Structure formats: C-alpha cells, structure tokens
Amino acid sequence: MGGLGDFSAGLTRILRSDGVEIDLVLPDYGGLAFEPSAQHDLDVPDWASPARIRQGILGDVEVDLVSVPEIARTNPYLDAEGRAWDDNDLRFFSFSAAVAAWIRSSRPDVVHLNDWHTAATFAFLDEAPPTIFTIHNLAYQGQTDVSWLDRFPFHGDRFRHGAKTNPMAGGIALANRVVTVSPRFAEESLPPNEGFGLADLLQERGDSFLGILNGIDTQVWDPATDRHLPINYDLASFERKQQVRSALVEESGWEETGAPLIGMVTRLTEQKGVDIALETLPALEGLGARMVLLGSGERSLAEMCARSADRYPDRFAFREGYDEGLAHRIFAGCDLYLMPSRFEPAGLTQMQAMRYGAIPVVTDVGGLHDSVVDADAHAEVGTGFVAPQATPEDVTDALTRAVDAWGSPQRRRAIVGNGMTTDWSWNGPAQRYIDLYQEVMSAR
Question: Rounded distance, CA 293 to CA 305, Å?
C-alpha cells in the first residue's frame, strides 16, 4: 500500500472508531474493485476537467475516489524506469483542484492535507477551512515550472520558491498547522541547510510546526490473526514463529540451517540505504546470516540487487516488486529487520517488524530514532540496534551486535518482548491529531 496509504487507512480507522466523521478523499488510480453508491461531477478549471467524485466502500473502508484526467496509472508516481512521471504536476494539480471543488461543496469543519500531491489545494481556494498539512517526506516537493503560478487563481506568491512552483512550500506557508511524521525529523528539518531547502519556511512556522510519530494499523499488522502467514502466533506462542521462518527460508530458495535471517521490505531509493545494505553482504558469511529483500523503485538499485543475488546466492535473495503476502511473511519470518536509511521521516516497517517479533537494526535518524531503543545502550528497555551513521561500517557493526544478541536466547526474548509489547497502534497519534483539529477549529 505504501506509507501514505498505511497512514490514511490506519488513522482514518481509529478516528472513525473515536466518533470523528471522516471523508477520506483519494485519487482514483484505476484498477480497483469499487462499486460507487453515489457520484457527481466537480467544478474545476478546463485544464483539469472532467473531474468526478465517486463515493463507496474500498475494501472495508468508506472512501471518496476522485477521477481526473491522466491520474490513473499502474504506478501512481513512477514510470517503468523508476522515474517520476513527466506530467505529475498536471496530474496532482488537477487532483488538488478537484479536492478544492469538493471542499467548496462539502464545507468540512477541518481539512487534513498530505504531502505536495494535495498541497496545491490551497491555490484553488480563496479562503480554506482550518487545515492541517502533514509532510510525510520533505525530500519530495513537487517542484515544477514557474508558469504554473499563472494557473493558480489564489495565493500564487506562496507557491513560488526560487525560480520554481513548489507546492510543498505553499502548503507549509498556508496551513494552520504543519506536521511531520516524527518529532526527531521535525528537529532535523529546522537547522540552516537542512529541510531540503525549506528550513527557512519551517522555522517561520514556530510552534505551529511539530512532529507526531506515526502508528501502524494493528488490526492489519497482527501475527495472531494475519491471513498471509502459514501459522499464526503471538508472544505467548512465539515458538510458532519458527515455522513461519522455515517457510520463508524455503520460499527464498534455501534449505533451513538455523542461520539468522535478515529481512528488508523497502522502496528502492537512495534514501532507504539499499546500497548500504548490499555493502554489508560480504560480512554476512562471517556472521553466518542470510538476507531477503523485497522492493521496487529505481531501476539502477534493482539491477544492483539482482547482481548481488547472483553473486551471493546462498546469502541474499531479492524479489523485485511489491507482494503484500510476501511482505507480511518477511516481517513474520525474519529474525532481524534491516533499515539503513540515510533519512527517515517516520518509517513504519520497523514498527511492523517489532510487532511481529523481529529485532530491528536501524540508523539513528528521524522516526527510527524515536521508535527503536538500542539494546546495548539500554539493556532493560532495548528494542533493537542502532547504527550511529548511515555507513556500511556502522551498519555492519550494528548487524554484528544484533546477531550476537540473537544468539543468546535470554537476550533475544527480552528484546523481542519489549518490541512486541510496545503499543504501536494509532491510538496515541490519533488523539494528538484530534487535539490539533480542535485547536485549529477553536482558533478560527
């Protein structure tokens, strides 16, 4: 589903269970089994038309799907080579215009926008309702040609950043509250020369810019009920995880030897440190460990992974693409979970891994800093192992420490127990968002 999809589904589910009335408005990328119960056209500029909203149930979630020209693609953001679609500006500015039209007709009490793909909604509203703008990845800002400012009927000056149209900059400037998805990443974004060029705008927001660590949907990510696993387990029946592990080893083309199994489920981007992970492979033989990686994204990184799988067939297995069932089986079947990110606004997979009893090995950035406690530095409350820097040397050292701990049944049980019993749900984060909704409504 992806991080933003997981965020939207998980937060919406908890907010609705808490009695908050939510309209979840999503772009219609096509190919969905969706039977609308109602639909109507939206009033948008000619270049964004026709636009239509269809209301119904997607899976078990009530959603409003917005169809605009060119939005439907097999991959919402990237072409077959892993590059951004050339017309992403048209696609998502059209979607933003449609969202603005929906806001004008529905008149919600609060609007919650996410990332640059919806930030331009402000450009089509003379006066917006109270608005929260959540930044999931500050590195992706949607920068495009400055001529787009001539098509924005409102607030065009707030979307000008340098010689570009920058929807992320406009969202930061115009929202009542700006949120990023972990407190640590909020801190990391503020110093000069940080914030991917937008630190000055974030500094200007003062206390109205903050970080709220994401949760995960614990109904979906639950080893006790997960339909994708060959057998279910929980902390009380943790020995059953061994059967899931053995099945994953076989699925990866290996024989079970009892060697520690490292998992990764990731986008193939420089941010995620996939190249760093590959540079640890020579050390795996000395550690007696194996690694399985599932991911899609940049073609160059996919090719590097494929070459590594050919070079280390007994140590590294690579599956390109996204396979929901395999993703769940990797979380459940691996002993250690590797996340060597160069930066990480929040991260969800380290929480999902801990929920499934895998020990995370992460870098000390963003949401990884906020969610993983190094078990060597804090023995009683440790949940994983933290590399100080995103380098092959530091990550290899953290993996070595993790393998050593995994080899001690007593330490392994303590670390796994700490991770599995932590509340990773959306309950706490959702309450913080509810508080923000109430704040901006009261201020307005």
Answer: 9
Domain spans of the chain, in order of start: 3-215+427-443, 235-421
Distance CA 262, CA 417 (A): 18
Spatial distance between the Cα atoms of 57 and 44, rounded to a whole number of angstroms: 25
| Class level of CATH domain 235-421 | alpha beta
Integer Cα distance of 98 and 100 in angstroms: 5
Q: How far is 103 from 110, CA to CA, in rounded Å? A: 10
Residues 6+ apart with CB under 8 A from 228: 324, 325, 328, 329
The CATH number of 3-215+427-443, from 3.30.230.10, 3.40.50.2000, 3.30.930.10, 3.40.710.10, is 3.40.50.2000
pLDDT in tens, 213-269: 999 999 999 999 999 999 999 999 999 999 999 999 999 999 999 999 999 999 999
pTM for this model (two decimals): 0.93
Same CATH topology for 3-215+427-443 and 235-421: the answer is yes
- Those residues whose C-beta lies under 8 Å from the C-beta of residue 187, and which sit 6 or more positions away, are 211
Q: Note every long-range contact of 55-58, with CB atoms under 8 Å and residues 24 or more positions apart, other chains counting.
A: 58/26, 58/32, 58/34
Tokens in use for 241? 């995880």
For 181, phi and psi rounded to 5 degrees? -95, 20
3-state secondary structure of 177: strand
Q: Is the dihedral of CA 270, 273, 279, 282 positive or negative?
A: negative
**β-strand partners of 209:** 178
Do the bridges between strand 164-165 and strand 144-145 make them parallel or antiparallel, or are there none, so unpaired? Answer: antiparallel
Residue with tokens 């590097």: 304
Cβ contacts of 381 within 8 Å, gap of 6 or more: 373, 418
